[in-house]
Description:
mainly alpha; MetI-like fold
Amino acid sequence: MSAAFATSTARRSSRGKRTEWAAILVLLVPFLVFLGIFTLYPIAKAAQYSFSDFSALRPAAAQFVGWRQYTTVLGDPTFRTAVTNTILLMIITVPLQTALAVVIANALNTRIRFRSFFRTIYFLPYVTAPVAVGAIMLALFGPSGIITNLFHSLLGTGQIAWYASTPQAFILVAVVMIWTQTGFFSVIVLAGLQSISAEIYESASLDGAGWWARLTSITIPLLRPTLLLVAVMGIIVALQVFDQPYVLSTTGGALPGSPDNSTLTMVMYVYTQSFRYYHMGQASAAAFVVMGIIVVFSLVQATIQRVTGGGR
């Protein structure tokens, strides 16, 4: 009797496991199909194109050229300009938007009136469409824009469009990046601040610590993992930036990266090679070089985080 019962139990357990695995496969198959079609297959084709002299205008004439596309990209002065612009944007925007995020998050973490309203206002630029952002910048920094007229009145500068002049166009791209990203990072920092116990600040206040002492001795050290996360995300966003400089540089029908490639970024270089000049092979090689640069910066950041103990 007991042997028959054990056998029946084992069979039910086996059928239950098979049913569980069948359910897992049913749930995974659609995901795997879409992953293969829209992610893995395009990556494989891009890798193939990066070793080929492939043009979308002459697909039948594609030839294998080995590493020549990579040497062409690395030797292209335009690509080096794009890399320089992108890294400069990263160096400028990441520290500023991180510092602003800390200041804004601290302000929003206090008991002020209309706190929810201000949180929405600061987050709004992040969800605003790039085209709308471009229109706003046109109204502010165009030839007769509000900011242009203000600088003209105070400093006597020319009434010229910032997006059509150097180095104003590069500065404008950095300003737009900071403006659109800071609200999002402020929300992340705010979440980190709310995880800090209020009792710690109360004890510090009783000991006579001012706001600066509380900021440097309590807030910043306890926020270190959050700030490192914000820095990593900011670096990745800066290295992949496309929307803001593209919209600003093409205002009025100008070429992407105008004027004089001063706003050209690495992703914009990939875009122009792909969809303006149809050099798919060179664009694919450039895309993998960009990916390599992002991986290098991510590894450097991870090493710094491990050495400094930021993940604790």
